Amino acid sequence: MLRFLISRVIQGIAVILGVLCITFLLLKQAPGGPFQGERDVPEHIRRQQAAMYGLDKPLPVQLLNHIVNFATFQFPPSPKTPGRGVEEIIAQGFPVSAQVGLAALCIALAIGIPTGALAALRPNSLEDRASTVAATLGICTPSLVLGPVIALVFGLKLRWFNASGWYDADDWVLPAVTLGIIYSAYIARLTRGGLRETLAQEFIRTARAKGASEAAVVFRHAFKLACLPVLNFLGPAAAGLMTGSIVIESVFQLPGLGQHFVGAAVNRNYELAMATAAFYALLIVAFNLLVDVVQALLNPRIGFKEDS
């Protein structure tokens, strides 16, 4: 298991470095710069500003400095946010995104797993067809459409919640419900497919032949293997939910991490954009590692293999 964890950590570090390099090159290829919006600034002043933030150095040197700063947690100052470090901005935005994302993940699991299991246990029935249609609609409906509809109904018409903003303790409800409904559709489809496939395996027929009850067959033998596709999906999905959905945060005007990332990319805030991308990559690596460990514990045939 130790070799397995070391291998995954090394791979994760390589992924984070790759994300940093790609983000840096893409930002540098975009037109404009961090000082473009400033007016009536003499050229020699701009050169001094670029030298102050190390932007006058060759690109490989700038990239190396960024990597070293992030690796040592010495986050560089940003010309777009004077007086506020990128770590402070991430620390302020992440709790909002995490609260909405965690609630959305719980809603998605609470809806998706029972719906998918019910459809798998009653194939070709009314419940199966209804859940399949509902899951397909959920997958096909973009958050840009579902979010305003939910805000209009529950925020503006019924006035149960605020339609936008982050003011009250229950402002996470509408964005979390929007994301939860969309992700529950994916989870329902994966649960249905995984459980249907597992119930057709030979060891399930053997368990039934030995006289095991249907509840024991489903929950003790089939369900833990049927959840493996859901676990594979939950790794990157959980990271994406907890770091903020850009569309949902824009619809509901949430001060989350997604909004900061978009603003950093548009305003050429290189330091904040790279830090946000690296933080997102770190979460994906961490959640995928957790998924690999859980999968190895649930399925002994996988085990803690370096190539699994």
What's the helical proportion of residues?
over 70%
Oligomer: single chain
Helical stretch count? 13
Give the total of beta strands.
Answer: 0
Strand percentage lies at: under 5%
Output the radius of gyration: 24 Å
Describe this entry's structure for a reader.
It is a single chain. Helix 1 runs antiparallel to helix 13 (270-298) and helix 10 (228-242) runs antiparallel to helix 13. With 308 residues, the protein is an all-alpha fold. The chain has 13 helices and no strands. The chain has a domain at 90-298: MetI-like (MetI-like fold, Orthogonal Bundle), CATH 1.10.3720.10. The two termini are 12 Å apart. The model has no long low-confidence stretch (mean pLDDT 79).
Output the keywords.
308 residues; mainly alpha; MetI-like fold; 0% strand
Topology:
Blueprint: H1 2-29, H2 43-52, H3 59-71, H4 86-121, H5 126-140, H6 143-157, H7 173-199, H8 202-209, H9 214-226, H10 228-242, H11 246-251, H12 257-266, H13 270-298
Helix pairs in contact: 1-13, 4-5, 4-7, 4-10, 4-13, 5-7, 6-7, 7-9, 7-10, 8-9, 10-13, 12-13
Quick overview of this protein structure:
The protein is an all-alpha fold. The chain is built from 13 helices and no strands.
